Amino acid sequence: MTNNFKDKLGEGGCGTVFKGKLQSGRFVAVKMMANSMVNDKEFISEVATIGRIHHVNVGQLIGFCTKGVKRALIYEYNGSLDNYVFSQDGTVSLSYKKLFEISIGVARGIDYLHRGCHMQILHFDIKPQNILLDKNFDPKISDFGLAKLYSRDDNVMTLTVARGTMSYMALELFYKNIGRVSHKADIYSFGMLLMEMAGRRTTLNPFADSLSQIYFTSWIYDQFNEGKDLEIRDATEEETKMTKKMIVVALRCIQMNPVDRPSMNKVIEMLEGDADLVLMPPKPFLVRFEKNKDDEINTSPTEALILSGDTIYYIS
User: Which keywords accompany this UniProt record (predicted)?
Assistant: First the structure.
């Protein structure tokens, strides 16, 4: 089914994902759980979590397999979102309108996880690689290896260790004095995802030549704040408006204080509503600090975001 596991789609802390094909000709994503998960804890957690979910924008678990210490999960698959957002040769297969529609689908899927199940499901790893697309390019949230279930009455959650992918993780997952962990952590991750979809690039590029290129979010905020037009190649007027709305909503989602981030149902309302009614939030400021000779960071640990070479960049 996987052609001897030759077509690798991605890899994470919980396992490696390969492309497969069923006898019917249907393509699937086969997630092989990491050997460190042989106690079945993560495997059972993911199967149990997905078994509770029934939504058009949440990945359908087609099946699972156990053989000896090997564990596999099988999902429907037609490519993941990162293949279309981060094109290697500069070409783009999806229109801006389609990306906008995908963003609303992802938002609806997250809203269902937060409010539509009998338990509140926090994903903790929303990113382009975990958004699978079906044959109609409808988005499906996948990979629940880091997900946690809580009572719908819980407003704050307890975690023993930060979980997720660094570029998409809210700061309260690291620093308690910023705010308590809640569903707003998924909102932050979605905001980073939305920004990347709108800009068709990663939000952070540590190899860029200038500071404005390093943190795309800070740069795009300044463009909007100065009233400059957003130049979008090969986009219609309608698509340009959609993209601008995606960016403003993304900026609202990535506010440092979780209290300042909207709920996902509010995000959907903003994306589907009038762009002129979506107000610009405060700017996520980018500040630069150098490391000293003893490799200590000359700033508060609550502010540090990312290390690039000998420089720390963070949002304050």
Answer: ATP-binding, Glycoprotein, Kinase, Membrane, Nucleotide-binding, Serine/threonine-protein kinase, Signal, Transferase, Transmembrane, Transmembrane helix
